[in-house]
Amino acid sequence: MKKRVSLSAVLLVTVMAASPAWCVEVTGHVRVKGRTVAGLPTIIYAESTEGRTPVRPGVFKIIQKNKAFIPHVLAVPAGSTVEFPNEDPIFHNVFSLSRPRPFDLGLYRSGASKTRVFLEPAAYRIFCNIHPQMTAVILVLPTSFITEAYPAGAYRLDLPPGRYRLTAWSERAQPFSMEISVGQDPVVAPELSLDESNFVQLPHKNKFGQDYPGAAYDPLEGPQPR
């Protein structure tokens, strides 16, 4: 069976755009309908509806290890740099065909690392051109107010007073948003809801838009070629 990365391996990103002394605790819950795989991450983020949302880029990392990208999902503020170190004793490649900025970091050996700056907000699906079972998603967001829901669906954000659009995201559902108002007291937000029941896993192409050769598939991991 394909080895799945546990939720504990997923990098949790919470970037404060103001001093904690001026922030208010916002808590809530995300209900996910139709989720059949445990450990999938759910990202929560907030954008101001009253002006420009603070964005503070950072430096993050997705490791290539045991023929997997770790973490499988990474949410970062726009403008952030992501490093892709190869910790396997074999060659790997990192590429994405996702718009607006497809990229290909090329082939590189064990112990090497390459980086990419993600400027435009989008969900970038990341693959290896050698190993089709290697997949990841980098969610680039126009905000630094980002967190991840706990396995039971609870989450917390610290926000300065104001009005916000609060969004729940998972790679298997359409995002769900609502507006909230943050004053001086802690806020319990209404429940967010995601529907993963219609998700269908489809095989992806290599960086040339072609099917992976049959020899690329590990018989213990990933789909088998037809």
Structure description:
- The chain has 226 residues and is an all-beta fold.
- Helix content is 0%, strand content 43%.
- It is built from no helices and 18 strands.
- Strands 1, 14, 17 and 18 form a 4-stranded mixed beta sheet that branches. A 4-stranded antiparallel beta sheet has the order 13-2-15-16, with no helix packed on it. A 3-stranded mixed beta sheet has the order 3-7-10, with no helix packed on it.
- Cα-based radius of gyration, to the nearest Å: 18 Å
SS elements, strand count: 18
Unreliable spans: 1-20, 222-226
CATH homology group: Cupredoxins -  blue copper proteins
Under the CATH scheme, the architecture is Sandwich
Distance between the termini: 18 Å
- Broad shape: globular
Written as H for each helix and E for each strand, in order along the chain, the element string is EEEEEEEEEEEEEEEEEE
The CATH topology, please? Immunoglobulin-like
Mean pLDDT: 88
The proportion of strand residues reads 35-45%
**How many DSSP helices?**
0
Structural class: mainly beta
CATH class: Mainly Beta
Largest sheet: 4 strands, mixed
Q: Quickly count the domains.
A: 1
